[in-house]
Protein 1
Amino acid sequence: MLEVEGLVAGYGGSPILRDVSIRLASGDIVGLLGANNAGKTTLINCLSGLVSPMAGKILFEGQDITRATSQQRVELGIIQVPEGRLVFPEMSVRENLLLGGFCDRARPHRPAQMTKVLELFPRLQERLSQAAGTLSGGEQQMLAIGRGLMAEARVLMLDEPSLGLSPLFVQYIFEIIDRLHSDGLTILLVEQNLNLTLRHAQRCYVLERGQIAVEGDADVVRDDPRTRQAYLGL
Ligand code: ATP
């Protein structure tokens, strides 16, 4: 569904990602693992169009989207749930969700999509009028995911959804990820939580200093000693 070939990208002319190739098959959860600064967010930002690659290609369902704008990618259903949630703090939960469904493709279906999102996250239903900035970290993560779903995501890219959450919330977020997967959504899961990601993803890539160090089925990646080395930044 989504293919990245030989991607080189960075900032101010200095590459961070060097010759990165990954593939997401439709309906899979693909884990992208790596230590701090490995380049995981840079890769997601290339996929959402926030960072322009210096070389390489990004294909979505066979269509070359390497130079497509972020807006065009959102219209295709490539949706990023950013690290740190980045909800609009002064706006209500309802307004944040409605904004998620603002693109042309999703706008006509916002009421139906809102019902689905609130079924998935009953806690948001109880807090629809509350300012998003006053939600707990876990609730803000629910809102950020819900906002991404409002855009009728076809590929949902979650950047460190478990970061800073209590163990119960982490478990809950992974249960939600599994539910979305059983509904057929394609998910790219960027995580530092190695064990949980290996348990929930079908395939994984381990990024080490801007390059793919290990890739394959989750079982294979789990058993490869290079995974833990790369992860620990050894
Ligand atoms: P983490 O797990 O800590 O979020 P990461 O694997 O997502 O790390 P990136 O955020 O992609 O890594 O960062 C990779 C490198 O790119 C880091 O050295 C970072 O300082 C650098 N970098 C990220 N964003 C920018 C930017 N806007 N300008 C310059 N350098 C940047």
Protein 2
Amino acid sequence: IPPGEVSQVDGIVLEKNICNSWDKIWNFEAKPDDLLIASYPKAGTTWTQEIVDLIQNNGDIEKSKRAPIHLRQPFLEWVRTTNSGIDQANAMPSPRTLKTHLPVQLLPPSFWEKNCKIIYVARNVKDNMVSYYYFQKMNKGLPDPGSWDEYFETFLSGKVVWGSWFDHVKGWWKKKESHPILYLFYEEMMKDPKREIRKVMEFLGKNLKEEVLDKIVYNTSFDVMKRNPMTNYINDVKMNHRLSPFMRKGVTGDWKNHFTEAQNKQLNENYEKNMADTSLSFCMEL
Ligand code: A3P
């Protein structure tokens, strides 16, 4: 399958590879001590993953540097001809930490049956859209986004890979009522990383000293993760970092450098409409 080809599962656009392996993904058997990190793409997944890995390793960065992040924490629905996230996960000793971008309704049911702990991270729609645009440009595994103006429309239509941002963040928010989900926000992690890292630590049932937490804050800062070959995807053959680095800017408010006034108005209207039926809200003015 040529890179960038997509198809659909239950109306959600996904990489064709993923759709072709859908039965295998859907029937994945989670274990009760699995931890799942879930997100819409570009919400701060890698950041959250590294925080979790460092907490699990009591802040020991050398241990976290044992392998690239996608090998330490398999990407559940990732599929290639010779390997897949499911194969990686099945070959891994417990306790396992896994990553997914699936919308809540497409998560393999065994995660609910086994009552696995889940950490979800969300990012405000405007910055999320900008980050995703650059990611689709640099990642050969995803469709070309076209121009910014074209992408703006595609993104709002929800016909992007992994589906509508609105449905994704709302769906996982709702699930929090009936399931152990820690719901994090990129903007809060930027504002007070130590407070948010402590939340993750408590959710994982760990108790680390202040100086260990400070070390984790340092080692998961944007600049340090950008330099760390185990977190910056520098060796991923699908990614062309010359077009746009994976660790691109790491800020909030970059949307202001991309949105026209008309686009901002359109998005705000869209946001009001789509978020009317949820208690979830985001900070976009920073
Ligand atoms: P930008 O493109 O806005 O820079 P994901 O891991 O979900 O793919 O998200 C990637 C986004 O998170 C990118 O956003 C990336 O730069 C940002 N990011 C990664 N590590 C970060 C960190 N330690 N601090 C802040 N932002 C980070």
